Amino acid sequence: MQTEQTTLAENQAEQQTFFESRYANSPNEVKGMDTAQLRQNFLIETLFVADQFHWVLSFFDRYLTGGVMPVDGPVTLTTPDQLKAEYFLERRELGMINVGGAGRVIADGVAHDLAYKEALYIGQGTRDIQFISYDAESPAKFYLNSTPATKNYPTRKVSRTDADVVELGSMGTANHRTINKLLVNSVLPTCQLQMGMTELKTGSVWNTMPAHTHDRRMEVYFYFEVPEGQSVCHFMGQPQETRHIWMQNEQAVISPNWSIHAGAGTSNYTFIWGMAGENLDYSDMDFCAITDLK
């Protein structure tokens, strides 16, 4: 397993930050991986622990996937040593979607309230960021994505009504779904980060079919609203050499730019997609015919 794990804590009284680095893998490497190796390299099993930041840095486009769940009080974004930065967003931008109870994010003194499934973009150069839950019994869960950035764009909240919404698929093919484009260039400017949320209708289980790749971007999927006792089977790999990873509620999976990214659940569910790379063209996809997948 090509990972490096570090838990940072100045003392027991302060919050902890879990930080893990994962090296990039080539298609040739992945062909030879068994189930455990696939999960170790691509699956992110834990994102939400009370009053802790959990971060996984992928060397695919230096994409950071994380989560924070404030319970006992405000939690301040700290800067892991691995970033070699004075502050977290010195050379990065940050996007988030709240998948828990009502919460608040304070960015350089400006408060932004986030309800369930609302998003927030915070631009490069923002120094001080705090995360707060309104109710410790139903804490906010801020799902976080961060990418390198070279320009400051304004911090902005994006609600469900602000989203660019598209309906795709049908009940006949079990993939009737609503795509909510939240932090994308049709809604607001970013350097390279894009995030959105896809909700599958009752009776539909397939996402991202027909499957595709995009050499210009990598992607991370975060699955949630998976009912208790149900699972999602996430498909990855080259179109002619696919692999699968079984996933549970509130887990994420890294998708290299050369890999397809699709899934089928034992129930309907919701997932958040995040992307980074050299362009912001949402439609930049190289589709694979369903009958050509192997």
From TrEMBL:
Pathway: Glycan metabolism; pectin degradation; 2-dehydro-3-deoxy-D-gluconate from pectin: step 4/5. Zn(2+) binds at H212, H214, E219, H261. It is an enzyme of class 5 (isomerase). Keywords: Isomerase, Metal-binding, Zinc. It catalyses: 5-dehydro-4-deoxy-D-glucuronate = 3-deoxy-D-glycero-2,5-hexodiulosonate. It comes from the Bacteria. Binds 1 zinc ion per subunit. Its cofactor is Zn(2+). InterPro entries: KduI, KduI/IolB_isomerase, KduI_N, RmlC-like_jellyroll, RmlC_Cupin_sf. Its EC number is 5.3.1.17. Catalyzes the isomerization of 5-dehydro-4-deoxy-D-glucuronate to 3-deoxy-D-glycero-2,5-hexodiulosonate. This is 4-deoxy-L-threo-5-hexosulose-uronate ketol-isomerase. The lineage of its organism: Bacteria, Pseudomonadati, Bacteroidota, Cytophagia, Cytophagales.
